[in-house]
Amino acid sequence: MIFVRGNRENFDSWEAEGNKGWGYQDVLTSYKRMEDWQGPASEYRGKGGPIKVLENGDICDAAKSFIAAGADELNLPVNPDYNGESQDGMHVIQENTGNNLRYSTSRGYLTEADLPTLEVQQRGTVSRVVIENGRAVGVEVIEAKGERRIVRARKEVILSAGAFGSPQILMLSGVGPAGHLQEKGIKVVADLPVGDNLHDHLFVPMTYSVDNSPHRSTAAHFGSAIVKDRLKPGSTFLSHSVFEAGGFAHTSLSTGVPDMQFFAIPWSYPPFQDEQVRLRPDTRPSLSVFSTLIRPKSRGTVRLASADPLAAPLIDVQALAEPDDLKVLVEGIEMLRAVMANSAIAKHVKEEYEPGPAFSGQRLKDEVLRRVTTVYHPVGSCRMGIDERAVVDPELRVNGIEGLRVADASIMPSIIGGNTNAPSMMIGEKAGTIILEGLGA
Ligand SMILES: Cc1cc2nc3c(=O)[nH]c(=O)nc-3n(C[C@H](O)[C@H](O)[C@H](O)COP(=O)(O)OP(=O)(O)OC[C@H]3O[C@@H](n4cnc5c(N)ncnc54)[C@H](O)[C@@H]3O)c2cc1C
């Protein structure tokens, strides 16, 4: 997976809103503790932590020429470590990978850790938090065959069900917007803005036919890579993220920190991936590049469809509701077109085939509305803070309920500029510190 910590300003703005302990210098401690950085030593990077992180050392020529063209065309530095001192510039992707394996939290913190007192129970669905006299005392679990049971907590309950799951469980437990809960027939335990402030990154894929990408989306290409990787593990693209290069840049709407993230993959990306009908993979050697909105202004909601815990929640991110969000994405596309016309890459480019040069001006804006898609980075639906918009306080405790915390992407007051997996891991790492300090451990 792509490993991005976020811009230092993101965390300083969280702290400025009253979230003491979440400024850049504070979260840097957690980031350093959680990683085992395989690159050159730096005061910004950690060594010996559970999550191995490296720069992809095997990127193809198309990705290299994209980096060179972006730097030249947009007057950006080539940044050797966007998770270090500064985020700005073009770069090779870093990923949480090591020993040819993805270092998920499951691998780093569980499989490879010695945790004799931990018991992981799988396949159940948490239907609610059991709250007695204003205190969380456990959770109700629905087992795979439908039977319900209560798991009781000795000290506290910590929800980490993500930006959709955590607000859903809280609302099913009577913790949420009072009017909405009453509408669904749920007794209100605490009237909180649970499910508000949902937001996500959005991007628009653009695909170019190029002559310096080694890949073809064919069964033969994947098949031979699988065989080669079996014979010599780690020797093919299968050991890395499909994203090879990227950049952090500023559109004319930026307020001092990058508001535009670029990605590049040496494959043809499906242009309408949210459609029910799957397109056939394009087998031309391609480079797909992405204009990505990383500081969206639009805010949506997570709400319950019903009081049935097995029913999916209603998710509405209000994508592009704020007009500036569309402007940023369109400007990003125009920047990428200029990059792909730069002499560092132009000689390799045959044509822009998605969305295609016919889309410009108003036609491009209309087309972006059809093509824009999630980056799968939902956050913010159990907002951390100290005002009436907050669901949890800066120690991640749910307001008004004893013994209950949330620790996942849902607590972000505002989304960080960059992919959200590393920040979500950091939130878990930091939650551990906060809880242990509270126990005097
Ligand atoms: C396809 C895809 C690709 C991505 N690629 C990247 C990437 O390359 N880099 C990056 O930085 N980020 C990436 N992300 C985003 C990243 O995965 C998320 O930001 C991160 O996982 C959020 O962590 P979380 O702990 O908040 O939630 P999650 O990782 O979603 O964890 C929540 C867990 O809770 C479980 N759960 C929910 N409800 C219940 C319930 N009622 N009972 C029991 N369990 C429940 C869920 O099954 C899930 O296992 C990607 C996301 C997707 C979907």
Summarize the structure.
By secondary structure, the chain is of the alpha+beta class. It is built from ten helices and 21 strands.
Describe the structure.
This protein is of the alpha+beta class. It has a domain of 182 residues: Cholesterol Oxidase, domain 2. It has 10 helices and 21 strands. A hairpin with a 2-residue loop joins strand 7 and strand 8. The relative contact order is 0.19. Keywords: FAD, Flavoprotein.
What global shape is seen? globular
Structural class: alpha+beta
Report how far apart the termini are: 33 Å
CATH architectural grouping of the domain at 57-92 and 202-295 and 320-371: 2-Layer Sandwich
Number of strands: 21
Radius of gyration using CA atoms only: 23 Å
Low-confidence stretches: none
What is the averaged pLDDT score? 96
Examine the coordinates and then state which fold CATH places here, giving the name of the CATH topology of the domain at 57-92 and 202-295 and 320-371. Cholesterol Oxidase, domain 2
* Count of DSSP H/I helices: 10
Give the strand content.
15-25%
Largest sheet: 7 strands, antiparallel
| Hetero groups | flavin-adenine dinucleotide
Which CATH class of the domain at 57-92 and 202-295 and 320-371 applies here? Alpha Beta
Helical percentage: 25-40%
Domain Glucose-methanol-choline oxidoreductase N-terminal: 162-176
Family: Belongs to the GMC oxidoreductase family.
Protein name: GMC family oxidoreductase N-terminal domain-containing protein
Pfam families: GMC_oxred_C, GMC_oxred_N
